[in-house]
Amino acid sequence: MPAPINTFKAALARDAQLIGLWLGLANAYTAEIAALSGFDWLLIDGEHAPNDLRTIMEQLAVMQGYPVAAVVRPPTGDRVLIKQYLDIGVQSFLVPMVESAAQAQEIVRSVCYPPRGVRGVGASLGRASRFNAIGDYQATADAQICVLVQVESRAGIAELDGILAVDGVDGVFIGPADLAADMGFAGDLGAAEVQAVVVDALGRINAAGKASGILSMDPELLRGYRAMGVNFIAVGTDVGALTGGLRALRAQHL
Questions:
Q1: In a domain, 231, yes or no
Q2: Which residue, 243, 152, 168, 154, is CA-closest to 211?
Q3: Cα-to-chain-centroid distance, residue 234
Q4: Residue 193 above 90 pLDDT?
Q5: Taking residues 87-99, what's their average pLDDT?
Q6: How many domains are there within the chain?
Q7: By C-alpha distance, which of 194, 215, 195, 212 is closest to 203?
Q8: With DSSP H G I counted as helix, E B as strand and the rest as coil, what are the percentages for the chain, rounded to 5?
Q9: pLDDT band at 122 (very low <50, low <70, confident <90, very high)
C-alpha cells in the first residue's frame, strides 16, 4: 500500500483554483468547524499562531474525515522541524521567508528521503505511515509531498526566477503583508507600488508552470487575483471570522 494520495498537490498540478482559509486559533475544535465550511484547503499556521507539534497533529486528525486539504506553515524551514512535521503526517508545506534558490533547494531536500534528500528514516513510529501499516511508505512518500514556498521580501522577489527553477518546488506564495512592509508601505497592501510587484510576481509564477498563491481579504484585489488564474487563494482567517462575527452580533444589540 502506498502513501496517501495528496489531492491538494494533484489539483494544483491540474492548474485548479482552490479557495482556502488561514487557521490561527490553534484548536482542533475550531479546525473541525472550518473543515465543515466548504473550503478547499485550510492552512494550519505555525509561524504566527501558538501551534506546536501536538496541536498541529490534533488538527490534522480532525480534518482527515472531511473533503478539505491541510496545508501547514512551519515557523521556519528548519530541517529537524520539517522532519517531525512529516512524521506526524503533514504532506503539504508552506515555508515562510524564502529568499534564494539555495534555500528552496534545502527545503526540498528536507522533505525527501535519501538519495534525493536528507529526511531521516523513522516514520514507522508515527502517523505518516499509519504506524507502519503502510508497508511501502518510504518508497512512495516523496511523490506525495507538496512544497510551497513564501516569497515576501524584496530580496525574495529579486531571486524569484531562481526559486521557480528549483525542481521539487510545487508553488510559490507571495506574502503581501511582509512585502508591503519591506517596500516601505507597512499596512498598505493595496498600494499601487506593492500591487505592481505582486501582480508581476504572480504572473511570473504562472508562466513558469508553478502554482501561485496569495492571501487577501480585499474583495477587489481577490477578484483580480482570481481573474489572472492564481491557484491557491486564502480569503480570510478563522480569527478574523470569529472576531468579525462576534462584533457584528454585539452591534445588533447595542
A1: yes
A2: 168
A3: 10
A4: yes
A5: 98
A6: 1
A7: 212
A8: 45, 15, 40
A9: confident
Rg (CA), the chain: 18
Angle at 105 between CA 121 and CA 22, to 5 degrees: 85
Q: What DSSP string runs through 24-36?
A: -S--HHHHHHHHT
Domain carrying residue 25: 7-251
Mean pLDDT of all residues in 67-92: 97
From 2, 16, 37, 48, active-site residue? 48
Burial of 46 (0-12, 13-18, 19+ CB in 10 A): buried
- Whether residue 253 lies in the annotated active site: no
We report the CATH number of the domain holding residue 170 as 3.20.20.60
Cis peptide before 115 (omega within 30 of 0): yes
pTM of the full predicted structure? 0.96
The answer for residues whose C-beta is within 8 angstroms of residue 220's C-beta and 6 or more apart is: none
Whole-number Å distance between alpha carbons of 133 and 4: 12
